[in-house]
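so my prof wants the structure for this chain in the tokens format not the other one, which i didnt know existed until like an hour ago. anyway here's the sequence
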Amino acid sequence: MGWEIRSTQSGRLAVCSALEDAGAPHAVTTQDQGSLAWDGGPSVVAQRKAVCRALGMPLEALTQGRQVHGAGVATVGSAERGRGGARPDDALPDTDALVTAEPGILLCVTAADCLPVFLVDTASGVAALMHAGWRGIAAEVVPRAMQQFRASGGSPMRAVAAIGPGICPRCFEVGPDVCQAFSQLGLDAALEASGGRWRADLRRAVLAQLEWCGIPGRAVSVAPWCTACHATLFFSHRREGAAAGRQAAVLAAPDGS
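here's what i got, hopefully its the right format
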């Protein structure tokens, strides 16, 4: 159920053995692929194409929303396939989570400290991918995506879940706004006090929300890397500021045929 860094023709990628065993093409990019956000420069399309190629899929399959750190969930079918993948102006609006039940669609979110959250149900062929920072967690992007996951035929009891690289609590000092938002949702266990300062554990918060939705923590593969700590591997907004690049997390539904 672990994660590993794997060398590919496009550079190092973070991959999860549980998702691989489920037959779900996926990866989290590293600095090797460059920033995959749309403000990352003119080479972004070529970089995105290389990542798709590494997973054996065309760029035309890559589908992304316009992320707003909210709880918007989009269901992706053939009509939405490719939106936001090769150009930003047709990205799915106000979308931080994507759900699909069709193979051949590569869901994508970008992040630079927020957590990518993966869900796959091999029996129904449903996949979901979430962008979960503290604002998304507070807006309940995880339970809202789980609701759509179920509506599309996915089952929490059968789900393979994984949390990709993101910021660790040691690097994520927060203010009273985060503390209040988490406390109102019953996520006090994801807050840590030390030396008069507060830190938030995004992984613990997501694990709690997944468990409330029927997925126990022991069934979730959690990546061990902190994006802020690993300065030569991942981009980090907390470490680099507004100029930070973005890694991409991608996921396709398993093809049971």
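also thought this was worth mentioning. The chain has seven helices and 15 strands.
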